[in-house]
Amino acid sequence: xxxxxxxxGISRWNDVISYKTIERFFDKKLNWLSIxxxxxxxxxxxxxxxxxxxxxxxxxxxxxxxxxxxxSGLHNKAIKGIQILSFALVDVDSRRSYPILxxxxxxxxxxxxxxxxxxKAGRPKGSKNKNSADIxxxxxxxxxxxxxxxxxxxxxxPKIRYFxxxxxxxxxxxxxxxxxxxxxxxxxxxxxSKLYFKFDGEQKGRGRKRxxxxxxxxxxxxxxxxxxxxxxxxxxxxxxxFEVLNKKITGSINAVVVVTKKISTNQKTxxxxxxxxxxxxxxxxxxxxxxRFQIEFNFRDAKQYFGMEDFMNIKKERVYNFVNPPS
Length: 327
What we know:
The structure is a single chain. This protein folds into two domains: 1-108 and 133-165 and 292-327, no CATH class; 190-278, no CATH class. The protein is built from eight helices and twelve strands. The protein has helices at residues 7-13, 19-27, 32-40, 139-154, 172-180, 282-291, 294-305, 316-323, and strands at residues 48-58, 68-72, 77-91, 96-105, 162-164, 184-189, 196-198, 212-215, 226-232, 235-244, 253-262, 267-275. The strands form two sheets. Strands 1, 2, 3, 4, 5, 6, 9, 10, 11 and 12 form a ten-stranded mixed β-sheet that branches. The protein has a two-stranded antiparallel ribbon with strand order 7-8. The longest helix is centred in the middle third of the chain and has 16 residues, at 139-154. The chain is globular. It starts with 6 loop residues before the first helix and ends with a helix.
């Protein structure tokens, strides 16, 4: 159809369905997870991964459900609109992404700890160590955790093993979300993340056993961890892989450090991609993380062809029904 994809536009585009009928359709409670999966299941091969990402849709007015100011990468600033979280299945062989579930997000407010005048510095008396694997999920992490359980339970797929998210999940809470859903997480760490090798030296006779070994120096990586090198024009890429620890993450992670060097100036930069699957090879980790970008084409198509930027609904159910049709 031509023009803006709104309910009024849809009613004018056809001669059969009235505007009121279209309104009633968007007021229905629809199981989009089941509908989308039935539409795409014949396209999926044997090797499928689950990916997720957020997108911001600009909206004017004041009455749209969960309207607020959200960061937009396209505008490089916070804009007025709504934010959605979309899950998609990516067929690794065909390298295509198929959306299965989209949810609207609300603005998450960070909890601010207010200290009273009588509060003492340091650890409170009588407090005990907490297991960092038993943390309580908050905000986005809680929504993703609940959504993952719903998706895995509902889909009759061969077991999905990998969940891919951007750097927002490159932390202990993101890893625990995936673990509780029995999935391996592939994500990205900050460039300045302090990583350690496992200590493999001789332990002392008494006292707590040493866990952390040498700190990883990204400027002087040992060549024994080098997996492959690519040179194209003036750019050199080196891929290093090792099992590492981080003091803020429970357990080991399988890290791949990609070092990029401009040969003419000798300038270096690096990025850290990781997987919680300790047996996964570096090529697969990099490939699966790069496939996460396929979901961006879903957002593009939804905005271009399915009216995600055009819809003029303000009610919760209507907004949910408008952002969910597959692209």
